[in-house]
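Worked example 2:
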Amino acid sequence: MAKVIGGVFTSHVPAIGGAIAKGLQDDPYWKPFFDGFKPVHEWLKHNKPDYVVTFSNDHGLNFFLDKMPTFAVGAAAQYDNADEGWGLPIFNSVPGSPDFSWHIINTLVEEEFDIVTCQEMLIDHALSIPLELSWPDLKSYDFKLVPVGINTVQHPLPSPKRALALGRAVHKAIQSWDADAKVLIFGTGGLSHQLDGERAGFMNPDYDKFCLDNLPSNPDALTQHSALDIVELSGSQGIEILNWIAARGAMGDPVKEASRNYHIPISNTAAATVLMTTEHALAPA
């Protein structure tokens, strides 16, 4: 069966893509954030996934406010990045795995999740930037992608409990995939931030620390708050923590936190990067 080897959890602020394009990784403003990826790079040298399953939110490339699925799963043969208007370069396309995607989709339906299946899907900065951060030297990706989208934009929002259950159902699908394959999980977004309204610029390090401390060993602790509670605690865009919660569920148990980086601010966002590993990972040599 397929096995989860680890998980990468990170922010996906568009300005990160601009910093990459301009070569600002060692700039004093950006260096504390980019340094958080050094342990990830080292670990990935020894742990090469066959598949990458991601949890993120769409920012208008696929869905808009008039059509916003709660959960969506890609089943495409290839995922292309496209211009979102941020002035960023177009990042690498990523090969997909329709067979693995459909296996996950069928398992989710059996687990009573009503999802939208996307046989065509673009990837925006929520995925292109984390992938570029993790594999900055690759000209093309040698793994296959299965993207899972979660609505963190339009009310009503899914609950943290439902997001965690979604991730655990994906883990069940991975375990039942009849392939000798290594799977890496990604959760992207956040942490606390609000980009508009009266609380623009709001961040909450205490709530962020609560999430970072509990996510590895006690992810259910993050379900004590409703989605609206999280908006209040972490800002309207801080609800992207749902992506992290779902990704943690997809990792299964137990997991080990291998590295953690937390930095304030990047573009009015509390940015973080966490690497978690499972018993199936190879330790860096």
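The mean pLDDT is 95. The first strand starts at residue 3 and ends at 10.
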